[in-house]
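re: the backbone from monday

yeah here it is again, tokenized this time
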């Protein structure tokens, strides 16, 4: 196993950099193909969310030195793919190899490495990334074992700890922020831009808090209307956002668009039509859906996903005890994973041992059958077969034990006694 991870997240990189290295769904297959073309890469999974981009790979045999694995080729690939300076990018990256990759993956899957401790969406995102790579034939035994171990631990953490009891997530935090800024949610209108899981959860939390009306904007009217029907809301096209913006007190956006959907000019015109009634804009997308310049507009209050983490810290402390329990479960999981790998390491040796024994058995059986066909007595044939099998099976171990004894390597003799269950007086 030569697992390696190169990643950035909300603790190591600004949102400006994170949006530059993000992999939207539309380019994942192309990126995987390009990554798998590297001579050093045998398996690969690309995880890309609003808070992190992580490249998981298993190196080929030719690129697995005994010492520290080489991260530079992956960093250079990531830099080249997104047209970034590799030295600058490397300063914001974190690196793990071998078992540490598994430990980190378990922490991420459990929500322990998230912007909001214990947030539940990340596990689904990790599973989706893994499934995509598997369908693309970019996953083999090494990454397969690592990710399945992480999923198993994440399930145990969710079951055995209280880390997922309260609905804390980025979506929940966005809804809490809106509730804190506006005192009368029932009188307000929310414009929701996007159709993903996060944006749906934001809408659901706002509806539960009693928001007055909801508008759902999407690329196709059918999708917008289908989503709107779940919330007794109105549907609209993305092209209709400028005119719908006039009615919006709260705008929440999370799409996979590579370019901003909402600019400074549109917000200025909407606020003028609203007679400068305040507008809250929450941009949960990476890359961002709303131009940064919108934050400069009077009466427009723009929050990015990074701002959410600074504003919302409720329930974080209540989850710290559960997080400690989760860490203990993860360490047990890592230990079990290591034991599994060690047991797998024995498979090759065991197979060679069995093959050699089978080869000796086949040869001696052929000799015994020929002797029997020549009319030799059955008892004599069986006696010869048993003696010959015994001598040939113990010959090589006997030679090696004598050599070890002569060289003073007593540990070899002790190991043999352990392997064959020999008593001291035998």
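seq for it, each position gets an aa:
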């Amino acid at each position: 196993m030569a697992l390696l991870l190169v990643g950035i997240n909300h603790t190591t990189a600004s949102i400006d950099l994170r949006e530059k290295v993000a992999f939207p769904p539309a380019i994942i297959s192309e990126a995987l193909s390009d990554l798998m073309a590297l001579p050093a890469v045998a398996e690969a999974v690309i995880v890309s969310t609003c808070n992190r981009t992580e490249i998981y790979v298993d190196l080929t045999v030719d690129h697995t030195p005994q010492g520290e694995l080489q991260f530079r080729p992956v960093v250079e690939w990531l830099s080249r793919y997104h047209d970034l300076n590799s030295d600058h990018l490397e300063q914001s990256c974190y690196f793990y190899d071998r078992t540490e990759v598994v430990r980190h993956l378990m922490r991420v899957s459990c929500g322990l490495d998230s912007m909001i401790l214990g947030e539940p969406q990340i596990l689904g995102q990790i599973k989706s990334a893994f499934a995509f790579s598997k369908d693309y034939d970019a996953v083999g035994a090494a990454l397969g074992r690592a990710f399945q171990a992480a999923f198993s631990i994440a399930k145990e953490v969710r079951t055995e700890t209280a880390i997922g009891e309260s609905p804390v997530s980025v979506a929940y935090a966005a809804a809490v922020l809106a509730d804190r800024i506006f005192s009368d949610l029932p009188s307000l209108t929310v414009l929701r831009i996007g159709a993903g899981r996060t944006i749906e959860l934001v809408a659901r939390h706002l509806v539960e808090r009693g928001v007055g009306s909801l508008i759902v904007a999407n690329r196709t009217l059918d999708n917008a209307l289908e989503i709107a029907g779940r919330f007794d809301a109105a549907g609209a096209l993305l092209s209709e956002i400028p005119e719908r913006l006039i009615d919006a007190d709260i705008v929440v956006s999370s799409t996979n668009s590579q370019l901003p959907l909402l600019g400074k000019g549109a917000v200025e015109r909407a606020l003028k039509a609203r007679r400068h009634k305040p507008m809250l804009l929450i941009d949960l997308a990476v890359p961002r859906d709303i131009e940064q310049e919108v934050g400069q507009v009077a009466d427009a209050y723009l929050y990015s996903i990074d701002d959410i983490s600074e504003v919302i810290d409720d329930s974080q402390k209540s989850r710290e005890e559960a997080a400690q329990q989760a860490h203990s479960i993860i360490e047990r999981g890592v230990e079990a994973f290591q034991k599994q790998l060690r047991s797998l390491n024995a498979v090759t040796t065991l197979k060679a041992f069995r093959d050699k024994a089978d080869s000796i058995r086949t040869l001696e059986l052929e000799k015994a059958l020929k002797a029997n066909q020549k009319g030799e007595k059955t008892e004599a044939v069986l006696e010869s077969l048993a003696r010959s099998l015994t001598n040939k099976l113990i010959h090589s171990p006997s030679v090696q034990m004598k050599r070890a004894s002569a060289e003073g390597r007593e540990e070899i003799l002790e190991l043999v006694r352990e392997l064959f269950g020999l008593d001291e007086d035998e």
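The chain has a mean pLDDT of 87. Strands lie at 3-9, 41-48, 52-59, 94-97, 189-193, 213-218, 234-237, 250-253, 279-283, 300-304.
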